[in-house]
Fold this sequence. Notes:
Blueprint: H1 3-12, H2 20-25, H3 30-35, H4 41-55, H5 61-72, H6 76-89, H7 94-106, H8 110-123, H9 138-153, H10 158-171, H11 175-182, H12 189-201, H13 205-216, H14 223-239, H15 243-256, H16 261-273, H17 277-290, H18 295-307, H19 311-324, H20 329-341, H21 345-358, H22 363-379
Helix pairs in contact: 1-4, 4-5, 5-6, 6-7, 7-8, 8-9, 9-10, 10-11, 10-12, 12-13, 12-14, 13-14, 14-15, 14-16, 15-16, 16-17, 16-18, 17-18, 18-19, 19-20, 20-21, 20-22, 21-22
Amino acid sequence: ANPAADCRRLTTTWLLSVPPAGQWAGTVDAGTLLSDAGVCGQEAVSRVAGTLRRLLPVDASGWILGARAALVAGEIERGSELLKKALERDPTSPYLYRLMALLDIRAGNYNRALELLADAEGLAPGYHIPPVEVLPGDDLWIKLEGLKRRAKLYPRKREDTLLRLANTLWSMGRRDEARKLLVPLEDRPTVIMTLAKWALQEGKADEAARLARTVADRTVFPRRIRSQAYSLLAKALEAQWKTDEAMEVAKKALEVDPNSPDPYVALAHLARRRGDTKAALRYIRSAWGVAPSNVRVLLEVATIAEAAGAVSDARLALERAEKLAPKDANVGIRLADLLIRHGEFMQASMVLSRQLKRHPMSPRLIALATRLQQETSVRR
């Protein structure tokens, strides 16, 4: 056995990284473990875990460290028991739920693992450490069920959580469910705005305009929300070919909140519709300046900029969006598509390589990779 190598491995892998509480207590770090040359790495970690449990009996760190050491040693049952005790001490840790789910999958308890993953998603949406592979389609169930549980766990965040859940259902085509979910909150401005956006997507521009106006005209609502409502109203009027009225409403949105990117986006689309590409580019760059880290705005910048011939702006916006939202396959797809269309094959292959590692089963990414291969073979 090589104690030094064992200890390094145990304290640097995701499975056995040293917990923060141990570092604060000054009882465990790589140096402490390596100094005990007569004890193998796993045993040293187990000893330190026992010390932590004695020093901090109500803290989960000692139990987590002990569980990790047991799992690496192949003592699955002991590791599971220690994890359960850690969860009793820290029932809000998404990491613990996911680690227990991983063990359940390996033990053949797949359905119980899904429940644990939903609990973790409810506590921390989008948290994926440690990574746990599930069957196709189950990841969506975990997301939906996690949001439902989050709404119960955090009543103060209920509105935001239900909106996220409703938008997810809407994107899946389960529109009746999405609308029904928001009925108890239909008097809230953010919910009214969501219903207006849905109406616009369904081609009901008049209904979208009516809903957006009910928010925009209420001076008791925050200026930010009213500005967003005016901007949405401008889009609804534009869809009805009421261009002049839409322009006035978009300018009103800018007056209400000049620090919001939405009025600039609305003005950019209106300028583009009337063929004024220079004005469209100027407005969308203003939106970019106001919200440089807003992924939605960056995607709008890419659309308007490319249409105006400013391909470098479009590419820069999409590259920035990919860095901000690395897990969003749609952003990577748009960037790769832009690069392929403009002959930037090397950069496109790098983007596709990154995205396919994250989303290996995405049909759109696979189709783009095939297209890139065809493009490069033709030009050889």
